[in-house]
Amino acid sequence: MRIKIIDFGFSNLPCRAHANDAGADVYATKDISLCSGQTYAVPLGFGLELPDGFAGFIFPRSGLSKRGIVCELPPIDSGYRGEIHAIISNVGRDSYDIKEGDRIGQLVITPVILATFSTENIKQRGDGAFASTGK
Fold this sequence. Notes:
Blueprint (H helix, E strand, L loop, with lengths): L3 E4 L16 E4 L4 E3 L4 E5 L2 E4 L4 E6 L2 H4 L3 E3 L13 E6 L5 E3 L4 E9 L24
Antiparallel strand pairs: 1-5, 2-10, 3-9, 4-8, 6-10, 7-8
C-alpha cells in the first residue's frame, strides 16, 4: 500500500530500517530536553494522506522505552492533513535529551473498523468493573 507523505520541509521523512519492519522510523525536528514526568509534542516534519478505514500511530522505540522515553498513542485520523507530532513522555527517573535527527518513534499504519453506534437491543451486563467478577 502506498501512503502519500505531505512534506513540511524536514529532511528526515519516515523510513524503514528493513523492508518487512512493522514501523517506519520517525525523527525529531529539533532538540528537546525531557525532565522526568514531562510530556512533549515533538513535531515530525510531515503529514499523511491516509485512506478512510486506516489510522496511523507513532509507537515507541524499544531502546527508548527501556530508558523510560515512550510515545503516547493518539490516532492519526484519515482526514487529518496537518503536521504529525509524536507525543513523548518521560516516565523514567532521569532527564533525557533528544537531538534533532534522533529516531524517536515508529510510524505504524493499521486498518480500523469504522463502527456505527446504536443503543437499541443492548442487553444489560451490569456496571461492575475492575475485578468485579472476583479473582
